[in-house]
């Protein structure tokens, strides 16, 4: 809700800027996991000029466990910087955090694009790629948290726009992969074009961020007291914490942490000289109230990241060589997951079931564990232990539909229910705790993916 004396957002330039910034924050994660077939081909020692960008390589490349490592090294920085946020954000100026992170991410993506043209043995290529994944996601975590702090000073509409941009990142990456594969050029040029695309996206994000100080509307809100913005940097989703508002939630595991929706008009009432009547909320007391919901969030993400993309990216079509086989995984794994996950998250805009007092929520969350063996028994050709019980493509597509929708809905639901279980003055602490458990679930799932891969 904008203040009455606030200037107008001319031509919606500030809204467009935050939308593009939201898109830019999650392009790195999505472009790396969507390009898993390309990296597998390079690690298998394949000549990139003769192998198709979307072709799966599941045998020699698996000696590196690329799927597992890229997932783990993408999620550990999120957990680490969730713990270090308070220290970092007080010591490093906001402009340095945001602009510096964007520039470093851009340079690392340029390096990734250049490596497409460089002949390199699998070992050094794997080491360089893993280092890039770690640093890109580390700076991405800093970037995300810093932008959430800025959103805390803006009207809630801009949080929704930022979320919408993040929500499109996974779909955008999957479509970029499909267009690269369908372009008709050689695989090396196709891969180069694919990795140049996020470079353009990051450049646009830099331009958008640099333009904000020149826009009167942005200056009006971003000039708020730093203490107010810092207080909101580690809190969770604005729209998700209000049950009477319609929410739009992003569609990737990393997208669930956002600042609380505290109306800017109410901020001046919170003076430091006048402590709140209820006193400082106790982390332990708040945790006792939300621990079931928090553990549900951990389990949802642990199940999701344990098989996606580490196991699901290895599934191939049973129809044999051909166009469908080439496009099967980009469409049925990455594009389908992102679209249906986004749909699942949006369902909480219309209803919240089961409610916070129901025992059905833990049951539904636990039932998702069944997806682990279901995906492991799909058509993954290279395996040594488990049989293939679901060879047809229809099985994998059905499992992925239910898997993605349930992930999106249950993540959104748990983030909605947590603040309803605490008192109003405890919601900030609840949001911070849920952000921590979100990152913990992602890291646990990434770690478990090594075990499930070894069981194949």
From TrEMBL:
A single GO cellular-component term on record: basolateral plasma membrane
Subcellular location: Apical cell membrane; Basolateral cell membrane
Alphabetized SUPFAM superfamilies for the sequence: MFS general substrate transporter
Region (Disordered): 242-278
Transmembrane spans: 12-39, 69-89, 96-116, 128-149, 161-185, 191-212, 294-315, 327-348, 360-382, 394-417, 429-452
GO biological process: adenine transport; adenosine transport; guanine transport; hypoxanthine transport; inosine transport; neurotransmitter uptake; thymine transport; uridine transmembrane transport
Superkingdom of origin: Eukaryota
Membrane topology: Multi-pass membrane protein
UniProt record similarity statement: Belongs to the SLC29A/ENT transporter (TC 2.A.57) family.
Protein function: Bidirectional uniporter involved in the facilitative transport of nucleosides and nucleobases, and contributes to maintaining their cellular homeostasis. Functions as a Na(+)-independent, passive transporter. Involved in the transport of nucleosides such as inosine, adenosine, uridine, thymidine, cytidine and guanosine. Also able to transport purine nucleobases (hypoxanthine, adenine, guanine) and pyrimidine nucleobases (thymine, uracil). Involved in nucleoside transport at basolateral membrane of kidney cells, allowing liver absorption of nucleoside metabolites.
UniProt protein name: Equilibrative nucleoside transporter 2
Organism for this UniProt entry: Sus scrofa
């Amino acid at each position: 809700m904008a203040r009455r004396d606030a200037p107008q957002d001319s031509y919606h330039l500030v809204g467009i800027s935050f939308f593009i910034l939201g898109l830019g924050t999650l392009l790195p994660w999505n472009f790396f996991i969507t390009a898993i077939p390309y990296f597998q081909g390079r690690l298998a020692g394949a000549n990139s000029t003769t192998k198709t960008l979307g072709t799966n390589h599941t045998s020699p490349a698996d000696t590196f466990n690329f799927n597992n490592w890229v997932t783990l090294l993408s999620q550990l920085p999120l957990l680490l910087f969730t713990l270090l946020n308070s220290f970092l954000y007080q010591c490093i100026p906001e402009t340095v955090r945001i602009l510096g992170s964007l520039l470093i991410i851009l340079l690392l993506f340029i390096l990734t694009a250049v490596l497409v043209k460089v002949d390199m043995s699998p070992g050094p290529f794997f080491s360089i790629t893993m280092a890039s994944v770690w640093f890109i996601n580390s700076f991405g975590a800093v970037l995300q948290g810093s932008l959430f702090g800025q959103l805390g000073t803006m009207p809630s509409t801009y949080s929704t726009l930022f979320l919408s941009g993040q929500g499109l990142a996974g779909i955008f990456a999957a479509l970029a992969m499909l267009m690269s594969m369908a372009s008709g050029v050689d695989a090396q040029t196709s891969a180069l074009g694919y990795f140049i695309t996020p470079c353009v996206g990051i450049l646009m994000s830099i331009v958008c961020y640099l333009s904000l100080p020149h826009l009167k509307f942005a200056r009006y809100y971003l000039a708020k007291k730093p203490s107010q913005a810092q207080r909101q940097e580690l809190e969770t989703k604005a729209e998700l914490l209000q049950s009477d508002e319609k929410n739009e939630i992003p569609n990737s595991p990393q997208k669930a942490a956002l600042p609380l929706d505290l109306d800017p008009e109410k901020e001046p009432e919170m003076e430091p000289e006048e402590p709140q009547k209820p006193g400082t909320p106790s982390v332990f007391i708040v945790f006792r109230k939300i621990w079931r919901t928090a553990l549900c969030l951990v389990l949802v993400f642990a199940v999701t990241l344990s098989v996606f993309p580490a196991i699901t990216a290895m599934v191939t079509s049973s129809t044999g060589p051909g166009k469908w086989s080439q496009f099967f995984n980009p469409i049925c794994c990455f594009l389908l997951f992102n679209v249906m996950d986004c749909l699942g998250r949006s369902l909480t805009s219309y209803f919240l079931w089961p409610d916070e007092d129901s025992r059905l929520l833990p049951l539904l969350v636990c039932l998702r564990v069944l997806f682990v063996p279901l995906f492991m028994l799909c058509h993954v050709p290279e395996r040594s232990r488990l049989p293939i019980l679901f060879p047809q493509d229809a099985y994998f597509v059905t499992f992925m539909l239910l898997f993605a929708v349930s992930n999106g809905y249950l993540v959104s639901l748990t983030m909605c229910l947590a603040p309803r279980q605490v008192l109003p003055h405890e919601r900030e602490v609840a949001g911070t705790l849920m952000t921590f458990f979100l990152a913990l679930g992602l890291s646990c799932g990434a770690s478990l993916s090594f075990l499930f891969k070894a069981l194949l």
